[in-house]
Design goal:
By secondary structure, the chain is of the alpha+beta class. Helices cover 33% and strands 21% of the residues. Strands 2-4-5-3-1-6 form a six-stranded mixed sheet. A hairpin with a 6-residue loop joins strand 4 and strand 5.
Length: 176
């Protein structure tokens, strides 16, 4: 029987304003119902866990502490979705799934300061396990610049390539 290819998946979304509160409510599971996402099975939400628990609300305090210039259209939060093909998780124990996401956090921390990470939460209450890791796009020199971090198409391809190279060391079956 031919197995389907298994992919490590890393996606970025950038947020500027009021939608950040909605992202926070979804990621942190603070709502009772998820009409916008019928895949959320709240009876399984107790299985979700944080690898980086949020110590404060999404991003205002970190931006204030950085004392950086903010424009009205500044990206304030970058949300990273980390997952893999559903087949990758089949038959894996909870500890093995956790190890996958812990390794993904280590990868992101190699390229983005740990201090900028607001939250990393693993959702086990939807069809496929996945992690939402949110960070404030602060550069090493203290500027708010998602463009410098996530960048253009070329930089996104770099992130994808590097993520795969990092993850394939432990899980050689993963494909790019």
């Amino acid at each position: 029987m031919m197995l389907k290819p298994q992919y490590a998946i890393l996606r970025f979304a950038k947020y500027k304003g009021p939608e950040i509160g909605h992202i926070e409510a979804h990621n942190e599971r603070t709502k009772e119902k998820y009409a916008s996402n019928p895949d959320v099975d709240t009876s399984r939400s107790h299985l979700n866990y944080h690898l980086v628990p949020p110590e404060r609300k999404y991003p205002a305090e970190q931006i204030a502490e950085a004392k950086c210039r903010i424009r009205k259209d500044s990206i304030r939060v970058v949300e990273t979705l980390v997952t893999a093909s559903p087949e990758f998780f089949k038959g894996k124990k909870k500890a093995e799934i956790r190890e996958f996401f812990e390794e993904a956090v280590r990868f992101i921390e190699k390229h983005q300061s740990k201090d900028t990470i607001i939250s990393a939460v693993v959702h086990m209450d939807e069809k496929t396990p996945h992690m939402h890791l949110s960070f404030v796009p602060l550069t090493a020199d203290g500027r708010l610049s998602a463009k410098d971090i996530v960048g253009n198409k070329k930089k996104l391809i770099w992130w994808q390539d590097e993520f795969w190279k990092h993850m394939v060391k432990k899980w050689p079956d993963l494909e790019r």
